[in-house]
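Minutes, project check-in
Item: structure for the 247-residue chain
Input as provided by the requester:
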Amino acid sequence: MATDPSADNTEADNSSSGGVVTCAVCLSDLSDDDNDNDNYNDSALGSLPRKAHLPCCFRPRASDAVCLPCMRTIINMTGTHIGRCPLCRSYVQFASGSSTSPEEGAQTAQLQTRLEKAVPHGRCAMCMQTPRIIVRGGICDACDLGVNNRLRYACTQCERIQVIPHPMWRYMETPTSASTVTWACHGECQTYTTWTVWADDVERIPPEDTPESWGRRERWLADVRAERERRRQEEERGEVEWFCTIA
């Protein structure tokens, strides 16, 4: 099979430059072993965490690497089987059957952890839109976020406060700006209008899902680091069970 010489050179440049590859999330030094990422956590025999092979960010530069444990944490924190790449914000997931929970016996001895892009493929049972990335219960990622984060929004026309089961914040340039898409107002308007997030509810928005223009990426990564540290401490006490939900 033909190969791309430039790709080989790129990888060679990274590995031979003498620089230490670090994770963009936890800032840990990463293993330069590019074999299958089979470390289930980041403390196996005191070894360095391995670099995740991100399907959305090909041949990442040393400064753009992310470790496998951080990707595991990012996905686990969503409560679904998908998460966002911290480099490009693409939706990714572990390939079906590539990761198992510790209870599943012999399969955990040598874990494969192949990441793949989460591709829209189904119809959402709530909004009925297609194709959508279905996360759980037959509903799409947007509806799942809306159901689990029922925020209050203010109509820009009649100023009615209304709970909207949809992540309207995704369509706002800033936390205080109006949405660029509409939703039905059940107040005086009785038509589709634009909305702003009620000020008291802004902090309830998951930082990993806010638009990049909001500047909350570092808050998201700080949350991931805190979760990693919490799990590390639990692991030291023998209390943690690592898992990753599979579609």
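Outcome recorded: Helices lie at 5-16, 68-78, 141-148, 217-236.
No further action items on this chain.
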